[in-house]
Design goal:
heterodimer; A: 8-stranded mixed sheet; 8 strands; globular; B: 6-stranded mixed sheet
Chain lengths: 147, 436
Amino acid sequence: MEALASGEAGVVVYRGVPLRSAADQHATAYLRIRGAPRDLPSHRIHVYMGDQPVTPATGKDHPAFAGSFAAYNSPPVPGAARAASPSSGLPEQQAPYEVQVDISAAADAMAPGDATADVTLVMTDGQGRPLDAASFLQENLEITLKG
Amino acid sequence: MATTVVSRENIDSWAPDSDKLYLFRKAVEGMQAVSDTALMDERGYQWVGGVHGGFGGLPYCHHGDLNFITWHRPYVLDMELKLRAQIAQVADQATADEWRLPYWDWGAPGAQGLPQAFTDDAYDDNGTTRPNPLLSQPYQLPYAITDIPDPHDRTWRRTGDPDELQALGDMVRDALQEPNFNYFSSAIEQPHNGLHMWMGGFMLTFRSSFDPIFWVHHCNVDRYFWLWQQGAGDTTSVPQRVRDYECQPFDFRDIRAEAFFDTRTLGYTYAGARSLVVPAEEAQTAPADEPGPVRLNFGSIPTEFERVRLNLHGVRHPENTLELRVFANRADTPDAGTPKTVDGNLVTTYVLLGHGNCPGAPGHCDPEWATGTDLRQPHHLAPFDVMLDVTASMRRLAADGRGRFEVQSRIVVTDAMGRQLPSSTLMFENSTLTIA
């Protein structure tokens, strides 16, 4: 899988995202993003399938739109205060987190036998402004088909 | 003395001038008054709000991990108990005992934005117009908020298009169909996140808990957890590390997440608006060598109701077919010879079909074999709930009561031939009355 900054603020294109059949029981096809950062403010990500050009202004009516999700997040607390936290050291609260977004309709429309797909993510903050997508560049996406 | 289990209600069912809403407002004011006196008093609004985002360090709250929905349950409960403590001062202890946090059903089909109780500028406090404490609350902690525009000294919102709530509702309905906890947890967190985004303002941040709307929002998320537990959810799929996780920083006797799984033990349910769930004060089976009935004493219940259900929880499948003959408020002890008639104070009967002899090797019919990671359907002999509609019988018994009446139920257990069996033949965990 290859992650590419598109040149458009807030937009990242992933080529060759692997498709995986579900190993366990669930009812929905998901795009799963592991290792999402916690050091961003709350943000919304729109997911588009394919490599058609999209921008932060592209909406849900676009034919490539597959789903969206909101990450409820908080910027990191400055170092001294972090160290003083009574709850510091809880691994769940410091580790990157995992999100999954329902892309069932788009997944159903894929050609049988496809092993990979191209995915474009568009990130905006709570005020609708593009976020620095470079901080989200990582290579840990996969699509889990219905089980 | 039984702990009364009261239903958390949809805030849309509370009239603008209802006592419950008035008490909610007074309780929030009271908690903030505690904080005004001592900022770090744990009974105060600022302390409870601060728990979520932490006190200058990492937050206590859980998001983006499997402790999300299980950690927030005791958090909402902690708030509810502190609100009730304030209500006890404004009203009385009995009123506080019956008050529960309402939920805002933002995922319901046709949901049209915020409840009016949270958007009104002011309310009538016995003839005095006061600012609505559910509209906004101060933020007084000395930790800077950096991720939303000013102002930061008071909560504010900037809500989205109400039509967007429909998409969140669709996500909720999909999530509730996920049998496996790992998928459910992430799937239900998503519309929860979306609601925070939809609300804007403080709700975009980990200081969202300072906005009073947070509590009815998260009460609703807790209701989704309850619905999952009652519905498609395979509760055995909750990982052990999630069950054992200690939910900090709450002051409960047992803070392992699993201790909060059964909401009836926490004093609340979501089993229908305006319903009351009353556990049996006494659930007693006679000794094995005595053929007496099962004794269920529920104490006194209101005479005004629309429906009453007698529930037996965790009933084990019997090997042989049993008939349960449920009587109530008889002066004597019923037995297999007691007429199965209304005049005999029969409430209802129920037949438990026996599963017969086990055809397999030892352990084949033991419902305990399933493991936490087993993805198959629950064992067909897994304990289940028997729910008996006893409305008509309770109406007859209530006719003699004045406001409340005592309910003492006796269950005679017989075999298929009508011969009385020891009451211990009927194996169940506990019993409740659901009154709506």
